[in-house]
Design a protein that fits this description.
This protein is an alpha/beta fold and about 290 residues long. Helix content is about 45%, strand content about 20%. The structure holds ligand C2E and magnesium ion (3 copies). One magnesium ion binds next to β6. This is Diguanylate cyclase (GGDEF)-like protein/PAS domain S-box-containing protein.
Length: about 290
C-alpha cells in the first residue's frame, strides 16, 4: 500500500526521505523503518533482558538462566528478536546490542549473587558477527572483570552455523574462553550443518537440542525420533545435553527417560524480566 509506505518513509525523517521510491515494496520499507528505529535504541534504553530458567528434569531445580533480549520500541511496540536480530546482524548493530546484553546479564547475576541468592550460570547468545570479532574473548573477559562475575557462571551460546565459519579460528577462540573457565554451548543443535568432527574438535560443555526435535516427540507413539540419537551422541562425546522448547509433561518425561537431565521451555517458565525471575531464583526450583 503506497500510502502506508509513504507515511513510513516520512517517519524515517527528512534525511532518509531519498530512500522512498514508489516501487519499493512494503517489506523493504518495513526493513528501513526497523533499521532506523533500531539505531540508537540502546541509548534510548529500549532493550530489556528477559531470563528463562533452565531446570533439572528430575528435581525441577533451576540450574541456569538464558538471557534473551527484548526490544520495546515506543513506535513499533514489542519487537521479537526473530525480527530484529537478523537485521541487527546484517547491519552490524548486533555488536553493541550483544555487548549490552552480555554486560546487563553479567551485572544482574552479580547483583543477585551479592544479594545472597545461590548463583546459577547465565547463558548469553552470541551472534556470528559478534563471535567472529577479533577481540571477542577480551571483550567478554573485560565485561566479567568489570562486573565481578566469575567466568564459570557465564555460558556462551553459539549456533552451528557460527561454529562452522572459520573452523580453526573458532576452535582457538573457544579454547581461549574455555581456558579461563567460561562454559560453551552449541545452540539450536540439529538445525545446522555441523559435523561430528566439529563436535569432537571444539571444547563444548553443552549441546542444546533444538525445540523442533522436542516438538516431534509424540505422546501417542513411542518413536524417539532424532532426539534419542542426539542424546546418545552427547553421552559418547561426554558433553552435557539440554532440551529446548519443552512444553508438555510428556515431553519432559520422555526426555528424562532417554537420559536428558536439563531442559528449558514453557513447561518450566517463559522468559521473564529480572524482577519476576528473582522470586523463582530465591526459591530455587519451578
Ligand atoms: P534461542 O537462543 O534458541 O532461544 C530460545 C527461544 O525459544 C527464545 O525465543 C525462547 O523464548 C523460545 N522458547 C523457550 N521455550 C519455548 C517453548 O517451550 N516453546 C516455544 N515455542 N518457544 C520457546 P526468543 O526469546 O524469541 O529468541 C529467539 C532467538 O533470538 C533466540 O533463539 C536467539 O537465537 C535470538 N536471540 C535472543 N536474544 C538474543 C541476544 O541477546 N543475542 C543474540 N545474538 N541473539 C538473541
Ligand atoms: Mg540460545
Ligand atoms: Mg536455541
Ligand atoms: Mg533458536
Amino acid at each position: 500500500n503506497a500510502d502506508v509506505a509513504l507515511y513510513r518513509a516520512k517517519e524515517l525523517g527528512r534525511d532518509n526521505f531519498q530512500f522512498y521510491h514508489p516501487e519499493m515494496n512494503a517489506r523493504a520499507m518495513e526493513r528501513l523503518v526497523l533499521e532506523a528505529r533500531l539505531r540508537g535504541a540502546i541509548d534510548r534504553n529500549e532493550f530489556i533482558v528477559y531470563y528463562q530458567p533452565q531446570v533439572n528434569l528430575d528435581t525441577r531445580q533451576i540450574v541456569g538462566l538464558e538471557a534473551l533480549v527484548r526490544w520495546q520500541s515506543p513506535e513499533l511496540g514489542l519487537v521479537s528478536p526473530a525480527e530484529f536480530i537478523p537485521l541487527a546482524e546484517e547491519t552490524g548493530m548486533i555488536v553493541p546490542i550483544g555487548e549490552w546484553v552480555l554486560r546487563t546479564a553479567c551485572q544482574q547475576m552479580r547483583q543477585w549473587q551479592l544479594a545472597g541468592i545461590t548463583p546459577v550460570c547465565v547463558a548469553v547468545n552470541l551472534s556470528a558477527r559478534q563471535f567472529h570479532l577479533k577481540d571477542v574473548d577480551s571483550v567478554i573477559m573485560e565485561t566479567l572483570r568489570e562486573t565481578g562475575l566469575c567466568p564459570s557462571l557465564l555460558d556462551i551460546e553459539i549456533t552451528e552455523s557460527t561454529a562452522i565459519q572459520k573452523p580453526d579460528e573458532t576452535r582457538l577462540t573457544l579454547e581461549r574462553m574455555k581456558s579461563v573457565g567460561i562454559n560453551i554451548s552449541m545452540d539450536d543443535f540439529g538445525t545446522g550443518y555441523s559435523s561430528l568432527s566439529y563436535l569432537k574438535r571444539y571444547p563444548l560443555d553443552t549441546l542444546k537440542i533444538d525445540g523442533s526435535f522436542v516438538r516431534d516427540i509424540n505422546a501417542s507413539d513411542d518413536d524417539p525420533g532424532l532426539v534419542d540419537a542426539i542424546i546418545a551422541m552427547t553421552r559418547s562425546l561426554n558433553i552435557q545435553v539440554l532440551a529446548e522448547g519443552v512444553e508438555t509433561e510428556e515431553q519432559g518425561r520422555f526426555l528424562a527417560r532417554l537420559g536428558c537431565r536439563v531442559a528449558q521451555g514453557y513447561l518450566f517458565g517463559r522468559p521473564l524480566p529480572a524482577e519476576e525471575i528473582e522470586p523463582l531464583l530465591r526459591r530455587g526450583y519451578v
